[in-house]
Every structure is written in C-alpha cells, then in structure tokens.
Amino acid sequence: MSYLDIQRKRKNCIPVLTEVNKLEFVSSFVCNICDSSEIVVLSDLDRYGLKIRSGLCKNCGLVFLIDRLTKSGYWEFYSTGLYRKLVSAYNEKEVTNEGIYNMQKYFARNLIYVFDESFADHKDGRMLDIGGSSGNIAKVLREKYNFDLTILDPAESELNYKSSHNIKLIHSFIEDLNLTEIKYDVILLYQTIDHLFDLRKSLRNINKLLDENGIFIFDILDFSLCCNYGPPDNFLKIDHCFYLSREIIETTMASFGFSVSIVDINTNPFHTTFLCKKVSPSIFSNNHNNLFCDDLISKIRKWQYDSPSYNFKDKLKVGLYKFKKMLISKAE
Fold first, then answer.
1. How far is CA 264 from CA 47, 90, 114, 210, 324, in A?
2. Which residue ranges make up each domain of the chain?
3. DSSP tag of 267
4. pLDDT, tens only, 194-250
5. 95-330 adopts what CATH topology?
6. pLDDT digits 0-9 by tens, 245-291
7. Would you call 210 exposed, middle or buried from its count of C-beta atoms within 10 A (0-12, 13-18, 19+)?
8. CB burial class (10 A; 0-12, 13-18, 19+) of residue 56?
C-alpha cells in the first residue's frame, strides 16, 4: 500500500476518530505478560491516524498499545458498533453483519481442513467460541461435529445476528466471564486474541475453562511477519491491544499452561494459527526472546531508511487471499 493510499484511508477515518477520542483512554509502560517495564517505543501513530504509542517488551517480546482505551471505553467501542464503523471507513467499504457471517463460513472451512482430526476427537463435546461475533464459524463446526455450543462476544448486535435457540450466547468480555465448573472440550479464539483487553487474565481464564484433554485454537496477526512489509504504524491499530509473533508463542503459551501441538501458516498470509493442549505451566524463560527482540528492532528501524516492496510471490499470495475474501463476502 502506497503512502498516498494510507493518507487517503486515514482521512476517511477522521469523522469516526472524533467519536473515538471522546472515549476514555489510559496509558501504561508495563508488559501485560511479564510485568517488565523495559519497553521500546515503536510508533506514536496507528493505522487510522490515531495518536497512540505502541511498545515492545524487551523481556518477553510482546508488542502492545501503550496508550489505549479503558476497559469501559472498549466496551462502548465494540458494543455500540463504533469499531465496525471505523473499519468500514478505513477499508472504504461498509462492514455488515451479513458480510461477517458469510466470511466466517470461509474461516470455518479452513479450520476444518487443518484441524479436522482434532475436532473429530471431541465430537459431541462442549465448545466455547470467544469473540465469535455472529457465530457462523462455530455454527459450521457444530453442524459437522455436533458440538454443544456457547458463543461469547462484546458486540451485542453481531452476537444476536441469526441467533439460534439452541446456542448459548454470552454478551461479555472473556476477562469478565464468571467462571463456572463447566469445562469445554474445544475453545476457539479466532481473530480475537489481538483484541483482548487483559491478555494474561484471559489466557488464565481459558486454561481454567479448558478440559484436561481439550484443545485450544487461536490465531495471531503475526507482528514480526507484518514488519517485513511496512513500518508498524501501517498496521498497528486501536482495536488490537496486543501483538504476538510466531517466534515467541511457545515460550509465552507454556507459561500459561499450554503446549503448542499444531501450527498452520497457510490459510492467511499474515496470520498464524495454533492448536494448543493443556499442560502444567512452566517458568517463563526469556533467553530466546531477547535475541528475537533485537532482531525485531533492527527490522523495524530499517523502515526509517528503506522501503522494500512485496516481491511477486508475496503480491500473488496476498492478492489471492483478498480475492477469496471478496468472493465469500458476495456469496449468499
């Protein structure tokens, strides 16, 4: 995306950002994973043009928004539809519940293709879809594996879109969920982990909710990979409080009691999907992460002097992915 394209998109967002700026903000230089305050500021602007800082924790490798909305601010941001309004302005195309619903069918097919055997091992079990939006990913999975389904999301209009009487709906953040003795065989956190307000509390809650033999599937917008194609302020955004990279996932998840079992890198050019199983939490080690942080900082600094573009293979991969998304959004 060219500099002029980015400036045009940011200009489109100005009216919505006026509304966003009315919400309550908070700032913190403390890492949400390891409590380190050794933070390197990476950017003072997000992709929408909002003046917020983002930082890298040099201890564990987590990238996070230093300046962001408060918890009540994010509740209003999502529950009133302001988030979708901002994304629509940036993409110059309205994001509708119907479009999300159709796109989720495509995501579900990808998940089935990669994780079919793992899903089948938990057929007829309980499934929790966190940040499930209109819930069509979970509904497609239920049709194939007969899951007893629960969907959680803070956006009420999306949660209730084409809702079904035999699906339990929870209008909440995962951080605020009142944990019960119910355990889930499958927990899905798809295109959601970046949006969490409290990453540490969320992962701990998920570990408590997961059955001892259950599976936890989530994906990340791979920060390190994105930095190959542009400076951080091209893709950092107010709706993503946290950014993880493939290189730090195993050590990060191990400290919360998860072992990475399957990694999928093929279904989206900038996302990586992981299947985890429950294990005893391990003591966090940052030996590998320190090297990763140094490499990542060097990668980001090169954008001050250089602006490499996609090669043909990268352009083709991204183009095909966008074309498939377009076809799905127009279906039905």
1. 27, 28, 7, 21, 18
2. 95-330
3. S
4. 999 999 999 999 999 999 999 999 999 999 999 988 899 999 999 999 999 999 999
5. Rossmann fold (3.40.50)
6. 999 999 999 999 999 999 988 667 789 999 999 999 887 666 556 78
7. buried
8. buried
